[in-house]
Amino acid sequence: MGSGITxxxxxxxxxxxxxxxxxxxxxxxxxxxxxxxxxxxxxxPAGELVWSCTPVAARELxxxxxxxxxxxxxxxxxxxxxxEAGELRRGDVRDGDRSMTVESARTDGSTVHVTWKSGAGxxxxxxxxxxxxxxxxxxxxxxx
Length: 144
Description:
This protein is mainly beta. It has one helix and eleven strands. 8% of the residues are buried.
């Protein structure tokens, strides 16, 4: 399965993230120093890009990417889709005033047991008949 990252032409870009050994680090404001680094390697068809950063910078980048992903997923655009409870899958987001994401869905005969997670991090389970219509704000792609 790919990373979902593409170049400007839409070609997949393999991404590798590694923990690096201590390396000589040049910081413009502070001169040279030693420190552990996080390595980021992007391998688009046009050539390889290799970056590294401190663990703190990696966490900041991850936080910014997470916020951008949430904003993108929550942006209006697609119309809600209605599926039967038996078709729910992890990551589906229910349409409504409050954010509710499917953590898991398990079918037991004609009953589907769905564990939801709120935007605030609270989890709970509900049982539905397998053919109950559930309206979703967002549905993740099959490959994810």
